[in-house]
Amino acid sequence: MAQVTRLSQPAPEDRLKTGAATYSSGIADAQNYMNWVIEQFRPYLKGRIVEVGFGHGLYSRVLGELGDYCGVDHDRDSVEQASRAMPDRSFAVCDILAAEQLRTLFPNGVDAVFTVNVLEHIEDDAKAVANLVDVLKPGGHLLISVPALMLLYNDLDRLAGHFRRYSTTRLRDILAGQPVELVRLSYFNPIGGLGWLANRLKRHESLNDDAVNGQIALFDKYMVPLSRALDPLSRSFFGQSVTCIARRV
């Protein structure tokens, strides 16, 4: 039991990381993977779109073509860098644990909230989800992708400051008391999940060493087509991520 507790909590120094320190730089070049992620949510990405935790900015470039986009992040440096890099996009500093900040930024509500690999960084993830649901217009959609399965938790999660990885059951329980109906809740990317499992056998001291970024490049170039083909067979039980689409009622 002590081992599980250790693995489910990032080290104190990792909890303090923000912005680019929480992800591998190689993911910004993983265009095939990013396109696949976007495809899961594309039918719901329209109108007023808010991206929570925009990270490397690759999704921002796509989402800005699909609707009235605004990216929010609690890290001021990330917001300033994104604003300089993409002056045609809107970005704002916002702590999604502070409901009043979201309401002030979006007083008329939004049509879609898109968040990829963010909730696992937040200790009180249920409160964050409730606040994101609250800012949705009726009929709007909460679009979530998070790392899947504590079985896969490894050094890369710890270094990124992840409090947890998710099961579909955990996300279902978080959303159970919210005014939403589930459109989709499933696992995603089985080959990526196997790769993450293999990384439990390795020691990692950095998210940005050549080995980690090399894995990302190889997966994006060669493994994405295979994982896409297998994904329908494994959605009910296994994947690197959990995909959740919930509609505000």
UniProtKB/TrEMBL annotation:
Keywords: Methyltransferase, Transferase. Signal peptide: none annotated. GO terms for biological process: methylation. Residues 50-144 form the Methyltransferase type domain. It comes from the Bacteria. InterPro entries: Methyltransf_11, SAM-dependent_MTases_sf. Gene3D superfamilies: Vaccinia Virus protein VP39. PANTHER family: TRANS-ACONITATE 2-METHYLTRANSFERASE (PTHR43861:SF1), TRANS-ACONITATE 2-METHYLTRANSFERASE-RELATED (PTHR43861). This is Methyltransferase family protein. The lineage of its organism: Bacteria, Pseudomonadati, Pseudomonadota, Alphaproteobacteria, Hyphomicrobiales.
